[in-house]
Specification:
single chain; about 550 residues; alpha/beta; Urease, subunit C, domain 1; Diaminopimelate Epimerase, Chain A, domain 1; 8-stranded mixed beta sheet; 6-stranded mixed beta sheet; 22 strands
Length: about 550
Amino acid sequence: MLPPFLFFLALTGLFAGTRADLIIRGGPIYTVDPANRVVEAVAVKSGRVLAAGSLTEIDRYRGKHTRVLELAGGCAYPGFVDSHAHLAGLGDSLEILDLKGLDSPEQVLARVGQAAAETPPGGWIRGRGWDQNRWPGREYPDRAGLDRVAGDHPVLLTRVDGHAAWVNTKALELAGLAGPLPRIEGGEILTGPSGRPTGILVDNAIDRVRRVMPEAGPEDIARRLKKAFACCLEAGLTEVHEAGVGPLALEVYRGLQRRGALPVRVWAMLEGEEQWLEKTLRRGVCLDKTGFLTVRAVKMYADGALGSRGAWLLEPYQDRSDTCGLSLTDRGTLERVARLSARHGFQMCTHAIGDRANREVLDVYERVLADFPDGRSRRFRIEHAQVLNAADLPRFARLGVLPSMQPTHCTSDMSWAVDRLGPARVRLAYAWRSLIEAGSLVPSGSDFPIEGVNPLLGFYAAITRQDLDGHPPGGWQPEQTLTREQALRSMTVWAAYAGFQERDKGSLEPGKWADLTVLDRDIMTVSAAEIPNARVLWTLVAGRVAYSNPTSEDRN
């Protein structure tokens, strides 16, 4: 059956004589269609692919007003999709202290001290990206250092994974955490020998501080999103699955969509309190006809993160035997929201990192989906699926549950993951190949701003399981590497499938949106070491050049 776009052309008798608005040619073009064709040119009409084939085949669509984009040796692919990221979080991270890559708490404190000198007394200081696993001893810091360099300011510094925070005494006092400490479901307030808080808060405990911070308004969110969109386009991303949109952010997105101000396609997962979710789901799935905003999923959290020991495990942590991690949402709530989502035609997308969390979510999904005749086709998702038990691995394909995974999490965590899990459990951590061999599709993403925006870093990590210096030799658990074709599909057609969008995007086939990413080299053939250095020349969304690298101007 012809896609609607081509059906219209055929019905009106215009197909044979149609002239393209744009022809892209001059380098290999990977269609990622079922035959995995590599073609010489693509014709575009009204923002969609008209045809893909040889230069001779495509030249017949050329008319007097057809524009031609000469790749001049560049290489084109279907537009890259990030299947799990945080656009608003990325924009926010660009406005606060960047603590990524710092090798000691002293380096963090120096940056905070500088900010304190430039901030009026009482003003909040925020930062993100610290990682104690990079520091000597790999121990959590305490609030004393922050009190010393910024005692007149409340300070909140979020760990790189977003699931732990380092705060000072001023922030604890404002949050009411300086006296007797409450028990927080799904969270932990770390204490020292005296029983007083050290300044480290894990998962839901962070909310106690966030509640007393100034709230972002719609103008703040819109400004941050604009910055995030620019980063995405420069990185070659044409669509992002936004993993968590609350009430205010949803209205901002809808406003941008109404004004035609979304330069990147956004596939949104709703998150928030249950009553708001139910009211919003009753409004139904939002499918913008231009394809720039899709609202048809719900985001929930089963546990925390491995790095902060909040991931929920079946057995205690190897390096902290008094805990199995944290359950962030009780089973009853997960099941109610899953049923609500299924009833209104929404996907359920649940954050689960530990093997216990993944099992719990699969159990909930299995019970809920059994009540719907088309349960497998609902495409419920588990976001991250980082640590699995062998008994649960085949359940993904059997239930039709998609493991949405982030390759750079593996290469970021591999130096310490065995410390958390031990040598046996770590064998099924970041198990992409095992899931594929068990029958699953694995859409990939980055989880930015936790990891970098550049999707080529994920492609490289997926095929090598090495860091950017090529360590370890041969890759960490190389039996789980992906082939280049699998890695490319994970960020194109599999990502489209994860959003019920396979008829409209993910490959360069007639009738689909003309979303393309053009690189200065062919990542399917160059050495793996060259891939992270590839530059984006153009990013096209619906046949329009949304980003052009200044150096690409010399090619046309």
